[in-house]
């Protein structure tokens, strides 16, 4: 599989003009959603841009992107969209976002997601990989019966910006790779050694989060459902205290994971994560993103029953 790595030794920090242009594009994106302007939203993408919504299809070209946003804003006219964190690494930008939206029927839905952007030389978004969970809003709106529901995310008016070029980025990337391998090979002792004493872990397609040593063990056990799994990395970006990852997780689902039941079929699902490190080089938090719809479809369980 194609493999792109951006460690500190080869990562050129974005110049001020490039960085400010990226920030302005994201501000336009956020503000246009919040005022219901699909054309302004689409204007930050190049005419030939592609968006891959993993578990939800692909959009090709600015016109298709605008039309998709028109449909979303018609369905959720009072949607509020905000960024929590944005990481800049040259032409590569990653954004952690949240959206809340009431519906005409009354109930509200909301979810968090992770966006991997590639900007072109003109300062437009040329490529976006979008990680979100389709089951989260479905459960919140009652479409999945009594399934556990994540609470609506809390929105913030400003986001935190992070830039590549920190002193410990190479070390953090190496630790992130070790952690992924230890999880794949189900080596609990090594996973524990790479985590801080009280890590915070959130699998965004699950209803509950994991906290502390006991929580990290529960998370590790939950990932045991992915028997013989491998996480084939496509992108690794280091930015200060953070490492951003995306790739494809493949294996066999031998136990339930969220609302997806065990299956004898091989699965393949896109997955991304944000790892935060402390000064000692241990992982203090993990946010992992994948689409329960994509996982369910991969093992022949879509639509969820």
Number of strands: 14
> Percent of residues in helical segments?
25-40%
**Count of discrete domains:** 2
Per CATH, the architecture of the largest domain is: Roll
> Unreliable segments (pLDDT under 50, ≥5 consecutive)?
1-14
Write the layout of secondary structure elements.
Elements: E1 4-6, H1 16-34, H2 38-42, E2 45-53, E3 57-60, H3 62-75, E4 80-89, E5 92-102, E6 108-119, E7 125-131, H4 135-140, E8 160-163, H5 169-184, H6 188-194, E9 195-203, E10 210-211, H7 212-223, E11 226-239, E12 242-253, E13 266-277, E14 283-289, H8 292-298
Parallel strand pairs: 1-11, 2-7, 4-8, 9-14
Antiparallel strand pairs: 2-3, 4-5, 5-6, 6-7, 9-10, 11-12, 12-13, 13-14
Could you walk me through the main structural features you see in this protein, from its secondary elements to its overall organization?
Strands 1-11-12-13-14-9-10 form a 7-stranded mixed beta sheet. The chain has a 7-stranded mixed beta sheet with strand order 3-2-7-6-5-4-8. The protein has 8 helices and 14 strands. The two termini are 33 Å apart. With 305 residues, it is α/β, with parallel strands linked by helices. Helix 5 runs antiparallel to helix 6. The chain has 2 domains: 10-162, Nuclear Transport Factor 2, Chain: A (Roll); 169-298, Roll (Nuclear Transport Factor 2, Chain: A). Helices cover 28% and strands 38% of the residues.
């Amino acid at each position: 599989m194609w493999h792109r790595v951006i460690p500190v030794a080869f990562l050129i920090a974005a110049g001020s003009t490039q960085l400010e242009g990226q920030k302005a594009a994201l501000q336009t994106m956020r503000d246009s959603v919040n005022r219901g302007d699909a054309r302004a939203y689409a204007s930050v993408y190049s005419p030939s841009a592609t968006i891959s919504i993993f578990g939800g299809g692909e959009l090709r070209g600015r016109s298709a992107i605008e039309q998709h946003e028109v449909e979303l804003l018609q369905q959720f006219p009072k949607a509020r969209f905000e960024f929590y964190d944005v990481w800049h690494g040259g032409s590569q930008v990653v954004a952690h976002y949240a959206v809340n939206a009431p519906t005409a029927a009354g109930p509200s839905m909301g979810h968090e997601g992770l966006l991997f952007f590639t900007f072109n030389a003109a300062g437009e978004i040329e490529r976006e990989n979008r990680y979100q969970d389709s089951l989260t809003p479905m459960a919140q709106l009652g479409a999945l019966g009594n399934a556990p529901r994540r609470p609506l995310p809390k929105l913030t008016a400003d986001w935190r910006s992070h830039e590549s070029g920190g002193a410990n980025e190479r070390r953090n990337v190496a630790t992130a790779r070790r952690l992924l391998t230890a999880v794949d090979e189900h080596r609990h002792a090594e996973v524990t050694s790479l985590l801080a004493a009280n890590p915070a872990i959130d699998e965004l397609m699950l209803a509950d989060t994991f906290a502390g040593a006991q929580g990290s063990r529960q998370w590790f056990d939950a990932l045991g459902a992915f028997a013989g799994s491998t996480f084939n990395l496509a992108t690794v970006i280091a930015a200060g205290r953070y490492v951003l990852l995306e790739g494809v997780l493949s294996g066999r689902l031998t136990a339930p994971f969220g609302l997806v039941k065990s299956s004898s079929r091989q699965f393949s699902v896109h997955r991304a994560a944000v790892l935060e490190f402390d000064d000692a080089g241990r992982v203090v938090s993990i946010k992992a993103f994948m689409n329960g719809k994509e996982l369910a479809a991969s093992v022949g369980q879509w639509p969820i029953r």
